[in-house]
Predict the 3D structure of the following.
Amino acid sequence: MVASDMDYKVVFAALETVCENNISIFCGPTDLPYGAIAGRLVTCMREIQEHGRALEPVIASFTAVFHHYDFDAQTPGNGYRTLAKVLLSCLLHIINKGRYIASNYTSAFFRSDHNASEMEAYRSALCQLRALLHLAQQLINDNGFGQLYALQDGDLSRQFVQEYSSMHKACFYGRCLGFQFSPTLRPFLQTVVISMVTYGETYGKQQSGLGLAALSLLTSGKYVIDPELRGAEFERITQNLDMQFWKSFWNLTESGLLAGFSRIASYPVQVNLTLTLPPVNLQLPLASDPSLTATVSPPIAHWGPGPVHMRLISCELREGQESEELLAYSRSDPPAITASHLPWVQKQPRSPWLLIHFHGGGFVAQTSRSHENYLRTWSKELGVPILSVDYSLSPEAPFPRALEECFYAYCWALNNCHLLGSTAERVCLAGDSAGGNLCITVSMKAICTGIRVPDGIMAAYPATLLTTDASPSRLLTLIDPLLPLGVLTKCINAYAGADSQTVQTAADSGSLRALGRDTAALLSDLTQGASNWIQSFLDPMRTTGGVRSLSSAQMGSLNGATPAGASATNCVDHVDYPEGFEPLRSDCLAFIRPTTCPVIRNPFVSPLLAPASLLRGLPPVHIVASALDALLDDSVMFAKKLRDMGQPVSLTVVEDLPHGFLSLYQLAKEIDVAAETCVEQMRKIFEQGDLRPTLSETSQSGSRSG
């Protein structure tokens, strides 16, 4: 990430030079007709210069210690490294823009107002990053040596939530959007942000999901032209629109048109079959004595026994996959096996491998359909049938319903692998984000039940701590367009049941069935709330993304004012920033409901908190994390915990990609390389035979892919 101390010194020296050059140009005698623009640039560069001088010793202190927080010497990656990397990335953008201004200000084509606005946006971003680094310094001082989380220090975590609630964030969603990520991703991120704010503007209109998306596209022009407006609106919706907005927006990826595009771009498969398992008891042999069996009941949490929905994907038709016994489980009419009834399709023997997949989506959104793109490729590259589980989603189905359904599907697959085109000699669990969490907790449940444990786990950027406990990487939720803290806490509270709603009946709870009625129903329930938001859009102070400083009294009242149905953050002491410095504050305050529900500390919700007795016996766990992911520290600390217990584990940290990068498969070369890293980890699980890596081999397996 930061290769050496010399790297940051060179960057700060270049920043100082650029600032001095621009100040001398626009302060000195000039006949350029810039007027107020020159004054804006001079003020901006002086403030940037001040921030740079204050931040250089901070980065120096980070580079001196952040290696102590790595998984091992071969795997440099943790939140402190990430914050340093993000800061230097911001400085490099400022340096490049400053050099451009100094070289082109006399050009007839030089857009003075545009360039001043660009520089001012990065100045605001730099100011907020300075605040994040100050918070990170507090974490270093107050946490135990080598510890990335303050799991027992509620005040630090409450301070973090309070700062998020009031700090200005719109600058990270406008002109500076995605500056920390790979440049090839920035157009995609801009598309996502514009789509979300325009969708928010039309949210509540009685349209189908696809019709609403089309209407949103027609009203998106102003957000393309005005990045400040875009940033302000995105800040508001990421902080204060409720969970049903997010569910309906994310479920647009399930619409027929978008899913069709995904299928066209992805690898063709011969088997793509949706299945429904009836709720019956299963009998599985005990791992310790196969002559004895354990009874596994169907999922029962919240609404009693109900079916479990799944999708079988296989690039080749294999024995068993065309059987009447399997097709009896199919939800399609007729069953959707692409070529099974064609006489010229050659049936392949059963694979010795079986991959069971749990999708991400924050426990609240998406299904296997959203993840088909990379699952099809995995099936081809590994030559393995894949069973992807469509577990019920929160807040309608909070914990432990999803875990029960995933565990039940796992047990059914072990008993019925012959129908899936596999002999299940080797079984791997794979999942991303929330799905990575479920891979771990399903394995823990298998250990507790005494049945066969999977042969390995591939968890991509897993959520292992479902709290708002502060860590350096969690500070990124203030700037991350794909995982803001306001959205993260909504997902956590939904899964924990803190935001549970009227429970669906078992017949209606399937996530794929729900998609048939998703957007219209969700929108009709929340028209009034959306109308209030649209009305606030008309307020000029709101649309300009007003930035201000809060008084001490206002900071105290921030956590006392609570919108209907929400709980305020506990009042804590305001963060003490260096004298003369205060981060920018926003007129759009976030109301973050604290993740205080006791369920979130259940080890089957937050496996990072699980005792050794529940984790001992896990199969080899291969974690693929991203250096720019707000959940990076979850992966690092969980990998350390397993390693220190003597459990086989590896950690790979890929660069320059956001949380959820698997869902962005085929959008950028860097994402494809990271996805291939996931495939290689699964290949290790399938090909390792009965040999599991020793602890020393595990330590050496940690690596970083760039």
In short: The chain has a mean pLDDT of 82.
